[in-house]
Amino acid sequence: MSYNQPGPYGGQPQQPGPYGQPGPYGQQPPQAPQPGYGYPQQAPPGQPQPGYGYPQQPPQGVPPQTQPYGQQPPYGVPQPPAPGGGGKKAGLIIGAVAVVAAIAVGAYFVMGGGGSGGSDIADDGAHKLTAPATIVDGQYKKGDKTETDTLTENDIKDAESWGVQNPKDVSAAYSAGSGLTSKQLMFAGVYGTIDDPEKVVDAMFAQMKKEAEKDADSGSKLLGSPKEFTPSGFENGIMKCQEIESKESGQTITMPFCIWGDHSTLTYVLSYDMAALAAGKSTSMEDAADLTAKVRKDVRVKA
After folding, report:
1. Pairwise CA distance, residues 144 & 78, whole Å
2. CB atoms inside a 10 Å sphere around CB 166
3. Which backbone phi and psi does 262 adopt, to 5 degrees?
4. Please, is 61 exposed, middle or buried when counting C-beta atoms within 10 Å of its C-beta (0-12, 13-18, 19+)?
5. SS3 180
6. How far is Cα 137 from Cα 74, in angstroms, rounded to an integer?
7. Helix axes of 87-106 and 197-214: crossing angle, nearest 10 degrees
C-alpha cells in the first residue's frame, strides 16, 4: 500500500466513506452492531448504536473527533466504542484510543525497511490468529463483530513485499465489565510467514511515529521510544510497547499499547480501563505487556 492509498481509521464514517473511498482492502466498513463492549445499551440521543464504526455525531459531552489521517479503517479493525456518558473526559479517552488505533493500523501496509536482529527469534512453527469468544481467563468477552480475510490482492502483494508471506488478517474488540467502569481491549493483526519479526515490528513503530507527526493538530503524540518487554509466558517472539499522550481542553491522558511479532504473526494490542483513565491514572507499560502476552496466548494458535 502506498502512502496515498486509503488506510486506517480516518475520514467520515462510510457515507462516502472515511477516507472518501471504499475501505482499504476493498471493503465497506461493517455496519454498526448493537451496543457492545460493555457500554450501556442505550445510545446517546440521536446517535447510531456504538460499534466498529464511529458514530455519525459525537456522543453528548464528547468533543467532536477529527478522523485521523483522513483515511478509512483497513480490514475492518474495530473502532473504539462510544461511551454512554462521562462528558469531556470520556471524549478525551475515546479520542486517544481512536488516534492510537489509527496510527497503528495505518502502519501495517506502508512499512519499508528498518529494524534488525529478528533472525535470532526461535521459529515455533506455523500459527494463525483467531478471535475466541472470551480471552484472558474469561475476563474479556468479544463484541458482536470479528473481521477476517478482508485483504485484497494488492494488500497481499504489499504485505509480501516487506516480509509477510501469504498474509491473512484478524481483528476483534473485547470488554470486561460495563459502562464507564469497563475495561476495553482491541487487537488487530496479520498472520502468514514472517522472515524477520523484529524488523517488521521496528518498522511498524517507525511508521506509526511518522503517521502521528503528520497530524500535529490532533493533540496526541507518541512518547519516548518503543521499549522491549518479555513478560511471563511470552516466548518465540518479540514484543515492544510505547505510550501515547492525548490532550483535549486542558486535560491530558496517557495510555500504552504493544505490538508483538513472531515468525507467523504481527499484532498490536490496545487496552484501557475507563474508570482509571477518568481518574487520571495510566496503565503501566509493564502491565500492558503482561496483558498483551495473555492475549497472544489466547488468540495465536497452531495453524
Report:
1. 10
2. 10
3. -145, -170
4. middle
5. helix
6. 29
7. 130
All three cell numbers of 88, joined, read 469531556
Closest CA to 260 of 222, 303, 290, 218: 290
Give percent of the chain with pLDDT exceeding 70: 58
Phi, psi of 33 (to 5 degrees): -80, 175
CA distance 263 to 198: 10
- Please list the residues that pair with 243 across neighbouring strands: 223, 256
Q: Are 16 and 67 in contact (CB under 8 A)?
A: no
Which residues face 142 on adjacent strands? 174
CA distance 213 to 217: 9
The mean pLDDT of 18-47, rounded to a whole number, is 37
Nearest CA-CA partner of 185 in 142, 218, 228: 142
Residue 53, pLDDT > 90, answer no
* Cβ–Cβ under 8 Å, residues 121 and 198: yes
* CA distance from start to end of the chain: 26
Beta bridge partners of 238: 261
Q: Return the C-alpha cell found at 231.
A: 513478560
Q: Which amino acid is at 219?
A: G
